[in-house]
Automatic annotation (TrEMBL):
Ranges of residues in domain Adenosine deaminase: 18-364
Enzyme class: hydrolase
Gene Ontology process terms (BP): adenosine catabolic process; hypoxanthine salvage; inosine biosynthetic process
Top-level taxon of the source organism: Bacteria
Cofactor entry: Zn(2+)
Keywords associated with the record: Hydrolase, Metal-binding, Zinc
EC number: 3.5.4.4
Stated family: Belongs to the metallo-dependent hydrolases superfamily. Adenosine and AMP deaminases family.
GO MF entries: adenosine deaminase activity; metal ion binding
Name of this protein: adenosine deaminase
Gene Ontology cellular component annotations, sorted alphabetically: cytosol
Pfam families: A_deaminase
Amino acid sequence: MSFENDFYVDGVDVTVLPKISLHDHLDGSLRPETILELAAEAGIAVPATDEESLRRWFAESSNSGSLVEYLKTFDLTCAVMQTAENLTRVARESVVDLAVDGVIYGELRWAPEQHLTQGLTLDEAVEAVQVGIEEGIDEAEELGYSIRIGQLVTAMRHADRSLEIAQLAVRHRTNGVVGFDIAGAELGFPASNHAAAFDFLAHEYFPVTIHAGEADGLGSIESALYDGRALRLGHGVRLAEDIDVNGKDGDATYVTMGMLAHWVKDRGITLETSPTSNLQTGAIAQWGDDITDHPFDLLYQLGFTVTVNTDNRLQSDTTLTRELWLVADAFSYDLADLETFQQNAAASAFLPSEERDELAELISDGFVAAVAAARR
């Protein structure tokens, strides 16, 4: 990534802090140089001919204020991810890039149904990505990093294959797939449209996260929770529409929360926020157009289970380090706050409880070690 800033909080380089990435799209994580190479091999037209120009094109095209426009950039990334070889390469590189950024556990989500134009079956696509993930883990280890990765198999909410994709996810639950998601244009495509898939997943005790509260409001979140039995909300920032700020008195903010907001808060349902992406897609437009306008801090101060994520590293030209630094800079957070966000993510990972506890220990130890190293 091309950043000019050093990302320090309390004198500690955020890059070295152990991190958990819950919301990261595989087809939004490609390296620009990889796109150029794969596109040239396949004869696919690209909007720029060098890495830096292509990087800028993705960021500028994604900064549209509309999720629908934002999603159009994926036509290019998906076009170069239609063979097993290419899927494996993209997954491998994505894992290595996460590891170098300090991520110790990540969940990569992607929609296999969008990668079948050159003859792959759904199962072959999932297997190709898993090969890449395992290769990426090995490559990261050779570079001195330790990382674990799970796949989140995603169905497109505007299509009609969700039950088939849910069955695919469960079929591969012992081969790297840890959860299920629906994604794509949110407005007009509620989770209730996919009731059969969610009924099946509930019967199979298979965890679900659902994109909701990004391009649609409270009704979408309600459907994700009621129809989808979602344990986490992809973005979920428009839950703030159910919170009325009545006034402030010094450092105290007085609010009234609706029943939906109370339910999400009291049940610890995780919000997978992605600050830069939420600005780009207009998800927080009703509150403003700057990171300081993001309702993240309001949700955090009220005790919601908030996490910080990248969504799409390519489209937002970002890393998890940068996203954490952005919220820290915007809301004057310290390392204790950043650790809270990572512990929230660790507790929300689609892993057995013992493995989540291990992540929590790694985070605690890693933050202590980073502070000690910075003081030497």
